[in-house]
Design brief:
The protein has 256 residues and is α/β, with parallel strands linked by helices. The protein has one domain: TIM Barrel (Alpha-Beta Barrel), CATH 3.20.20.370. It is built from 10 helices and 9 strands. The chain starts with a helix and ends with a helix. The model has no long low-confidence stretch (mean pLDDT 94). This is Polysaccharide deacetylase.
């Protein structure tokens, strides 16, 4: 397999882990799914080609049976709850947030309860009790009530060992984060530089090798440019068959 220096660095690190009897668990989370689109079909076909399990964070208020029919019969697809309507309720000047303290807690909890029930009914075979907050932000008081709704896990962005993640941790609630984002949200809003993305993956792999955990890759199929598709194809080609790398279904990670 021909590869550039940065990709070879990833292969070399995985080779070292294999020799040491270690493995890195990767998982893929894609946000903002609503309906079948050309981009979604491309993502589904790509992950299927490399046998990479896919977690789709679906917006409950805006989805319907069309997405269910699109995913019917596909293997290794998990459906997570992506808030309720992905609507910003923060005032101007604050970071966007749907699941914040800007509304009565009971209102937010009822929306999450409705979203949980809706997706569980639409996708009975692939639904997982995982909440993915829009914009990766959730108020700690809202997080405290997730277990009562039925959620067993929460996924935001960043190391699980960080103070931010620790503040969200509650008995019976597992934190399963993503750690590497492929999109340059504050610049081009296209794909980040491939070298920088792989460096971030290598950094996370080192953290996993030392302290456990997973390597969570975050994508947003609706905004992918061609460079994102090229990157994902190369990532899967490099890792999917490597003995020191396992792409995991998030349902296997919940309760682990």
């Amino acid at each position: 397999m021909k590869t550039g220096p940065i990709w070879q660095a990833l292969v070399d690190r995985l080779d070292q882990m294999q020799e040491a009897g270690q493995r890195a668990d990767f998982w893929l989370r894609d946000d903002d799914a609503i309906e079948p689109t050309a981009a979604l079909h491309r993502l589904l076909d790509l992950t299927d080609r490399f046998s990479v399990p896919l977690t789709l964070a679906v917006i409950p208020a805006h989805t319907d049976a069309r997405l269910e029919r699109c995913l019917a019969g596909r293997r290794d697809i998990s459906i997570a709850v992506h808030g309720w309507s992905h609507e910003n309720h923060a005032p101007p000047g604050e970071k966007r947030q749907e699941l914040g303290g800007h509304r009565p807690g009971g209102t937010v909890s009822e929306e999450l309860r409705a979203g949980y029930a809706r997706l569980k009914a639409l996708f009975p075979a692939s639904f997982v009790p995982l909440l993915v907050p829009p914009w990766n932000r959730i108020d700690t008081d809202i997080a405290a009530g997730l277990g009562g709704i039925g959620f067993r896990a929460l996924s935001v962005f960043g190391p699980e060992a960080s103070g931010k993640a620790a503040a969200l941790l509650r008995p019976g609630l597992q934190i399963i984060n993503t750690h590497v984002d492929v999109i340059d949200w504050h610049g081009t809003r296209g794909c980040r530089d491939h070298v920088q993305i792989v460096r971030d993956i290598l950094t996370r792999v080192e953290q996993v090798a030392k302290g456990g955990g997973t390597v969570g890759i975050l994508t947003h199929h609706l905004v992918h440019d061609e460079n994102v598709w090229v990157f994902l194809s190369k990532l899967f080609e490099t890792t999917a068959t490597h003995p020191a790398c396992r792409w995991r279904n998030v349902s296997d990670l919940i309760g682990r």
